[in-house]
Amino acid sequence: MDTGLIMKKWMVALFVWVVMIGGGIVLNIFLPHTFQSIEKRVRDFFFILRGPLPTTGKVVIVDIDEKSLAAIGQWPWERDVVAKLLRKLTDMGAGIIGLDIVFAERDKTSPAYLNEKLKLNLNSPEDYDSILSRTIASTPTIIGYIFDMNEIHKGKYPPDIPAVIVEKGESVASVLPEAKGVIANIDTINDNAYSGGFINTIPDESGMIRGVPMLMSYDETLYPSLTLEMVRIAYGVERIEVIYGESIGVESLKIGELEIPTDRHGRMMVNFRGPSHTFKYISAVDILDGNISQKEIAGKFVLLGTSAAGLFDMRATPFDSVMPGVEIHASIIDNMLRGDFLSRPGWTDGADLVIFVVISTFVFLLFLGTGALWQPFLLPILAFGIYYLLRWILFTQGILLNTLYPFVALISAAISAMLINYFFETKQKLIIREKFAKKVSPAVVEDILESEEENLLSGREENVSVFFSDIRSFTTISEKLGSPQRVIELLNFYMTPMTDIILESGGTVDKFIGDAIMAYWNAPKRVKEHPDVALVSALKQLEVLKELNSEIEKRFGFPIAIGIGINSGTVTVGEMGSRGRSDYTIIGDTVNLASRLEGLNKLYGTHLIVSENTKRELKRDYVLRELDQVKVKGKKEAVRIYEVISQGKAAGELEKELLLHHEALQSYYEGSFAKALEAFETLHADNERKLYELYIQRCRYYLSHPEEGERFDGVFTATTK
């Protein structure tokens, strides 16, 4: 790509980069909810791809499932049955029991309740509520309750918490969820319970449970969740510390040595272990019937809840759209026991922005500098790389970075870069098409356009074969034709087939100089064995000219003859000229020598001359005649030159002639002018050629000027072009 176009490309790229970065930042600021919603869905996909994790095995769920309901009856059960279940669990050595159930009304099946309601006047009837409350008081049971966010159950209170909640740092007003009421257990249970915790699992705006509040505010008092309270009691810690970060809200909670990272609203992000039933579920009826081994319960956190569909305690999570709510509590406790928390520290907002800028810039520059062939492979490789990096950060480091932003950066940067490349490659192709449409064949133009070669038009060195041809005595011909129209008609008639031959062989027509044609092979399109291709093209032109001459003689009254010079070597090739007007061409000594060789045809009476440089690189057989060692005008070093007679090998009389010519030329180079003269005269007698006349004259000159012969070095200096 030429320098001007490259500069324009990078100026456009800089503008697009600024717009892309600015646009991403602005969208994140002004459309945060849209981005956050999509980002959460992307993160859910990370959980699904990660798959289930093993649990600690220290949390079990006693399930009021369909099997239990079928055996015992519909829910709610009599409270004495629940009390029996709690005593069984305690006898089996349960470490601590959490109730994901709220007993908000009296047991209407209790004899005491029926006696009171129906005025039966029974003597000391059993009170199932009292039985349950005494059981809760005498077992390691922590009750659950539900905070109401809508003031429907205003006026009631949760149980007192036997713990001190200490706030550290600068508290931010209204940062924790504030309840308006509470769905509490009946007073007798509330008053007898050692402690309790709320069981709210508040879904986000998409209806999904991803984070769960650990603390909530009610009537200016802070209360812990059931899971937090269970872990606190199990660890034997009397205080909960709320750590506030500077101007960001809650940073973490501390229970003794255990620090639980949260978001600014005190929500712990759940590192889900897997889909529904990843944890150990034990049917409640199996506990009551004694069908479970004690080791399944002993020393463990036991959560009593339900998976029965009819009891409507189902929640949507990243792994499962119908996970029992009790299993979410199990996941939270398991997170705290293992310590593999997911957190989003305050610095992650800045990190998200830095990652977006870094990925956008890297991918943008990478795709700008990469060919279209590699880009379809790069995009998935980079996407997988970003995915595994984010996965490692999320599940190994436990840091909740934005999982959407990096992929937005990747896609937007890649698409932007590809569009810029496409636009400027299209423009470059138009420029190339304009430059080469009349220089090379259409097929070669298409090959050039499809080429992945960089800087095609910029100056570089190439090894090429340069061709010059010229019509002999064209000034005399022009005078004979009389009018410019006739001259142009002749030139067009001659040059069209000559040009076609060059183009068909893969050559590039550089320019037309009056009656001369300049062409070259191996630039801009690579041409294998270009010296041979150039030479075969020249021989074909000479053959075609013989056929053309019959028509030229009819139409213009005389035949024409041409001379061709070919030289191979290194040239500078590329776009050259002024800022407003330029051309793709070649320059260098190789070009100059080829032009001089074409002119030497007049001196030697030949039609096609090649240099020793070209002869050295030929791969095929040709009939060649060495002509001379020449210093052409403008060159200090001599070069051997050869007449090309035909393809193939010499035979018969021609072979004898060439052999004698070679011997005569060697005698001439050695300064044996008498011997050379005799040989050239013999050659001329048998085959009258201008070449032999030339050497006869030279030999006679040196014989008559012996002092010149003593200084003779075998090199002829050409003084004309």
Can you summarize this structure?
By secondary structure, this protein is an alpha/beta fold.
What is the number of strand segments? 27
The level of helicity is 40-55%
CA radius of gyration is: 49 Å
Quick one: biggest sheet? 9 strands, mixed
What global shape is seen? rod-shaped
Question: How much strand?
Answer: 15-25%
Describe this entry's structure for a reader:
- The chain has 721 residues and is an alpha/beta fold.
- It has four domains: 3-30 and 347-431; 49-338, no CATH class; 440-649, Nucleotide cyclase, GGDEF domain (Alpha-Beta Plaits, 2-Layer Sandwich); 650-721, no CATH class.
- The protein has 23 helices and 27 strands.
- β11 (239-245) and β12 (249-255) form a beta hairpin.
- 36% of the residues are buried.
- The mean pLDDT is 88.
